[in-house]
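A further point concerns the way the authors explain their paired sequence and structure data. An entry of this sort, consisting of the sequence and the corresponding backbone structure tokens, reads as follows:
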Amino acid sequence: MLPMLHQISITCFTTSYAIVLLIELLRLVGRRLPGRGLAGLVMMAIGIVTHIIYLTLRATADLPGGSGSAEGSPAVDAGRLATWTDFSLMVALGLAICYFVLYLRRPDTVIGFFFLPAILAMIALAISVRHLPAFDRGEATAFWRNVHALSMMLGSAAVLFGFLAGAMYLVQSWRLKHKRAGSALRLPTLETLQNLNRRCLVISTAAVGVGLVSGVVMNLNRWGEIPWTNRGIMLSGVLFAWLASATMVEFLYAPASRGRKVAYLTLASFGFLVLAMSGVLTTSHGGAAVNAHDVRADTDAGPADTTTSRRGDS
């Protein structure tokens, strides 16, 4: 990476978020200030980008025990992104991304009065717990594995639920068009099914995104590298790319033509989910976890050790 990126610190994105809060507080002046909304979006984007870069550098820093070691704690076996500081900063990043997306949808609201103080409070918490020791790599791997599994499970369930809601939407739309909706076999209204589709799309995108990130951190703790060429990882990335694109398309469509389009998107998302699951289950990605320390121990064992072991067994 560029040496300049290594100069990014907590101060960079904290200052950006604080400036956005000040810009939002200008709403209290009562006058409409030109460029206020654009300035807030630009500073928020800068804060999120620098926030992501900072966490990425902490996760990939070339330290003996990873970048997650806190001051005063042993760095020999410390996990990556495995301190309370890291956890607090990731929560702050999640809140920042949520605020940015919600602000894009409804720039006329004052949600910044609630989100931005919470973001700054989480950053302050991250700074205050710097002295706490990091979890070791085994604990970090187990933690991120659980986050990865739960997130991908939630994302898959949301995709499946959206698929069912989309199918019901198309059936109900056909029944209304042919005046058969008044029969004894009732389905939810189109408005209800449309809202379900949208929520499932957003939830699945967020959950699969968290699952991908947690999987990356899990592999960094487990192996010290990421097998990007693994078919399961590649197809999971394709699934997330599709879900993110579908969410953006849903965001851009006018409300009048959104329902049927979102239904088709959720149906297609199910196809991508099946493709991703087939890639996971047919490769080692979906197999049982192997302890990285055991693998290293087996690798370090020389021929003499193996011969001695065999003689002892005989």
